[in-house]
Amino acid sequence: MIYGITGNTQKEQLWEPVASLVRWLEAQGLEARLHPAVARGLVARKLLSDSKAAALTAHDLAAEVDVLLSFGGDGTLLQSAHLAGRRGTPVLGVNIGRMGFLADVEVEQVREAIRTIEAGDFHLEARMVLEAELEDGSTPALPWALNEFVIDRSGLAGLITIEVTVDGVPLNRYWADGLIFATPTGSTAYSLSAGGPIVSPNCEVVILTPIAPHTLTLRPIVLPASVEIDVRVYTGGQPYVLAADGHSQLIHREGQRITIRKAQHTVNLVKLPGRHYFQTLRTKLMWGAR
């Protein structure tokens, strides 16, 4: 197999493990391909002068590898998922972050994980993705999200009004700091922090979680993934933020329709034996701890 390697280049603890892994892969007769930022960092530190590992453009990396290894935390894995894009390239998260909820493998376990993959003892878990479209037919700067889309007031002094309809039927008018549209994967991220429910990733639903709503009765709601959600935002003429997996853009046109729906493609996460979502909840989120 050919393994692509990307990672959080802001973390100094990235470099030695990646250099060591590349040398080990080559010793096993396997091939490595490097994200350009990772390749530049290794060259600058003189860690891989004798390696045959090729550096590919970010655009080509996921297209030419069998598995994409993502070294970092959950934010890095989200970036890797967007690199994989609609190609369906499998992604394996290798944790060098603080928690790494989505990263199943710790950095010291990565060689054993690759041996397991080479033996074929793994499966791919297809994670649901949301996509967004603006009323004028254009797509946002980041048109789909593995975790969530967020509408946010962008530092405005007052709350914003968010009108939501579901399959053409009015759902609610939110007066809040913002509104989160989360996937099951994203249910343990921003949505959870805002009071949303934990949803098993094998469910296909969309979670709407308000951010600091100005009412005690407005709670999160879970909708089937088959629905089409239309959103209009009113801010008194000020721009607001539409964010996808943490990547933000300003929307200047007040009241234009934003449509959010389930995307046709999925993100494929590599899952190894002996690791289960419920175990991750208990060990990393301390779910149910006393």
UniProtKB/TrEMBL annotation:
The keyword Zinc-finger does not apply. The active site is at D74 (proton acceptor). Keywords: ATP-binding, Cytoplasm, Kinase, NAD, NADP, Nucleotide-binding, Transferase. Its cofactor is a divalent metal cation. It is found in: Cytoplasm. Its EC number is 2.7.1.23. This is NAD kinase. It comes from Rhodothermus profundi. The lineage of its organism: Bacteria, Pseudomonadati, Rhodothermota, Rhodothermia, Rhodothermales.
